[in-house]
Amino acid sequence: MRTAPTRCQAAVRCALVAVTALVCGALLAAAIGSPIPTTTTNGTTAACELPRAVARLRRGAPGEGPLDPSAVKRLRRQLDALPETHHPLGL
Questions:
Q1: Three-class secondary structure of residue 87 per DSSP
Q2: Buried b / exposed e across 32-50, counting CB within 10 Å, b at 16+?
Q3: What is the pLDDT at residue 36?
Q4: CB 1 within 8 A of CB 9
């Protein structure tokens, strides 16, 4: 269980919150006042669309079900049949 902060610790925390809010406000004001490069806009758009894209990829393709166990076994046998190679740098 955490103990309550001392009066000094509480004052420091409040000061840090106030400074953080002021810095964020200044950065926001600077961002609003400056022209936005198109690459930033594209990055922001991509970041906003990312959760939906990841959710779609996790659902899989339409009609795609779980992996066929026999196909997985066949693939593993084929991979085991491949020759081993040494790393070119000897690692």
A1: coil
A2: eeeeeeeeeeeeeeeeeee
A3: 65
A4: no
Q: When comparing pLDDT for 58 and 24, which is higher?
A: 24
DSSP 40-71: HHHHHHHHHHHHHHHHHHHH-STT--SPPHHH
Rg (CA), the chain: 27
Q: Which amino acid is present at 84?
A: E
Q: Identify whether the C-beta of residue 5 lies closer than 8 Å to the C-beta of residue 13.
A: yes
E strand map for 7-57:
none
Summarize pLDDT for 59-78 with one digit per residue, the tens.
766 666 677 889 889 999 99
How do residues 31-54 score in pLDDT, each as one tens digit?
777 776 655 555 555 567 667 777
